[in-house]
Amino acid sequence: MPTVHVDLADRSYDIHVAKGSILDVGNLVKLAGHADRRAALITDDAVAKLHAPALIAALDDAGISHSFHAVPAGESSKSMQATEVLCREMVRAGHDRKSFVIALGGGVIGDLAGFVASIFFRGIPFIQIPTTIVSQVDSSVGGKTGVNVAEGKNLLGCFHQPSMVIIDPDTLATLPDREFHQGFAEMIKHGAIRDATMLDELAALDPQSRDIPADLIARNVAIKARIVESDEHETTGTRALLNFGHTIGHGIEAAVPYGSLLHGEAISLGIRAALLISQRHAGLSSEASAKILGLLKRFSLPLVLPDSIATDTVMEKLSHDKKFSAGSIRFVVLSALGCAKVIDTVTPADLREAIDHLRSA
Q1: Which of 106, 121, 311, 312 has the fewest CB atoms found within 10 Å of its own CB?
Q2: Phi, psi of 149 (to 5 degrees)
Q3: Is-catalytic flag, 144?
Q4: Do residues 257 and 210 share a domain?
């Protein structure tokens, strides 16, 4: 079982990556030190049908007491309203500060359940069991939790590190095509910012196969883990490198009704925009840019922004983004494949031009 350790002093934890690991959850929960705690299993109604029965059976076999809580599937559940509903359900179910949360699902559930854990009785532990590529290689690691508001994504939340992450690549087999393919945007991002050789490995994968090697997932997780270790709370700027493609991507995602564009689809568009800015501001070669665009296309990710999404609307959403610091724009660019940096020379006019560029074929 590939294991990636995240070294954060007293907040350190392990990430276990192995096919079938969801069936071993009872033993892994004990390794996390939660054998005597009661679990609140939080998931959504779609994932519940697919993976909750196996997880519940594993908890029962291990003698771990638990309650079950499901929210509607989709980005709309990442809200303060859903947070309150879950917290009140947990109180009624008898949970207290000696309980812990299990987040079973994709990035929405991980962010929401992690946020619930961070505020319930002023903070209880939680374990991430991500079931999508996006959540397995990105959002389940690093301790970012939170919910959305109308003005933008993830504007309310806090850092609350999990006590363990359990990644079972077998869960990817049940994903619909769009949900499956969107996750490759984050894997391509990791290769682009830190590991150019990974881009070649991704190019060798069959885009239709659900058999993603555990080692490749662990390699992505390790990139995220090393960056988080060096900048847990985004104070030095290193962690901002993970936002490559996300500034404009989040603006696009927030400019349409939640769920209209999946996260990875919006990030694919954001990456294309960031590549143009990288060529203009950091000297990225057109060949390097074309390689990344080719990978995004290979995994059926969008590269053209619909005319129905107005540039002004995207720019308005960008103004609320957390990546704007004291009114200035901190933008992640590539100087070469595997080499990313944050610059502050990008102007609103540059952003507008990059957004308009997305309308071209």
Answers
A1: 312
A2: -130, 170
A3: yes
A4: yes
Q: What is the pLDDT of residue 265?
A: 97
Work out how many domains the chain is built from and give that number.
Answer: 2
Query: Active-site residue 66, yes or no?
Result: no
Q: Which of 16, 153, 246, 291 is catalytic?
A: 246
**The pLDDT of residue 257 is above 90:** no
Residue of 189, 243, 253, 330 marked catalytic: 243
Structural domain of 220:
185-357
Question: Catalytic site residue 122?
Answer: yes
List pLDDT tens digits, range 195-229: 999 999 999 999 989 999 999 999 999 999 999 99
Tell me which of 160, 189, 219, 263 is the catalytic residue.
263
Domain assignment present for 179: no
Residue written as token pair 């009785």: 121
Of 234, 298, 341, 357, the catalytic one is 234
Do 194 and 127 belong together in one domain?
Answer: no
Is residue 105 a contact partner of residue 234, using CB atoms and an 8 Å limit? no
264-307 pLDDT per residue, tens: 999 999 999 999 999 999 999 999 999 999 999 999 999 999 99
Kindly name the residue from 69, 190, 239, 272 that is annotated as catalytic.
239
- Give helix then strand counts, H and E, for the chain: 14, 13
- Containing 256, the helix (H) or strand (E) segment is none
Nearby residues of 114 by Cβ (< 8 Å), 6 or more positions away: 101, 103, 126, 128, 143, 144, 145, 160, 162
pLDDT score at 323 = 62
Task: State yes or no: is 280 an active-site residue.
Answer: no
Q: Which of 51, 219, 224, 330 is catalytic?
A: 224
Does the pTM surpass 0.70? The reply is yes
Query: Per-residue pLDDT averaged across 317-323, rounded?
Result: 75
pLDDT digits (tens, 9 = 90+) for 75-114: 899 999 999 999 999 999 999 999 999 999 999 999 999 9
Q: What does the alpha-carbon distance between residue 128 and residue 269 come to, in Å, rounded to a whole number? A: 28
Is 317 known to be catalytic?
no
